[in-house]
Amino acid sequence: MDDSGHIAVLVNPASRRGAGAEHAGAVLRRLVERGATVRTYQGTAPDDTPRLAKEAVAAGPDVLAVAGGDGTIAAVLPYLTGTGVPLAVVGGGTGNDLARMHGIPPGPRDAADVVLDGDRRLVDTGTITGDDGTVTSFATIACAGFDSRANERINRMRRPRGAARYTLGTYRELLGLRTFSYRLVLDPPARAVGPLTSGRSEVEKSAPRATERTADRPTARRRTDEPTEVPGHLLAIGNTRYYGGGRPILPEADARDGLLDITLVEAVGRLRLIGLDRPIKRGEHLSRPGVRALRAASVRVEADGDLVMYADGEPVGPLPVTVTAQHRNLMLCLPRDGGRP
């Protein structure tokens, strides 16, 4: 790193109920120990993050290091994407799924070393556009359904901490499991990323077909203007693999291909959804009956009921929305050895 510049470190004081500030302190000490010039940006509440991000980027740092979780990273994206200023993810959040996707170490000293010694690589992000024109950026995965309702529940819980809070909140949400009527319009047309399941709806079976080759065999796809309509429990859309503290719901996602991976779990019922828990944890669910895996550059999402879309663990707004991949618009600091695509 050029010693003439500086590293901006943005700290979310509320991350992990305040425990993230201690993590950030260890990152700062390591950076200073290694001779870096550091400017710290820390507010008193999460709402300060966008303002501080704007100030930090305007100062022209060599790197913007963010000490916080995926929600904190999402809050800085509008001020960072397209600027060429690299983002360093140094941890301190609850889920840390963006770091997990790219092999960024969880320890503060190791994460600080990546800031100084790591590679720089362009990766994809995503945007969610509401019908009112509001645009929200996200870094990992957006969801609407069982997973977003579980996320809402998890955000209200104070204990336990870490991944255990995700697990407990998820199982509590299962007790009131709901089915939603999803309507998806994909552009370009739907492309299967795994074997098609026997649980396809009549709408899909009767749709006009064109052939597109996947890794296994030719599979059917529909035209862009013909929606997929299907009852389901869970919908996840993103360009990375993990959400909920390490669950690979989009196990084939590539953060540099300019496409969104989509997993939709149909209305399989509580017992079969519980049965999918272990395959989802292992990333082995895409071939299971009742699970659809699609890929597109953009998807419009509609559903009945009062569904709110979440992204990076934070509420975005009610459906309908349009989710769009933003191709390689974020420069990310990655480990030189072992960083994932």
TrEMBL record:
GO terms for biological process: phospholipid biosynthetic process. Residues 194-228 are annotated as: Disordered. PROSITE patterns: DAGK. Residues 201-226 have a biased composition (Basic and acidic residues). Residues 2-132 form the DAGKc domain. Its cofactor is Mg(2+). This is Diacylglycerol kinase. Keywords: ATP-binding, Kinase, Lipid biosynthesis, Lipid metabolism, Nucleotide-binding, Phospholipid biosynthesis, Phospholipid metabolism, Transferase.
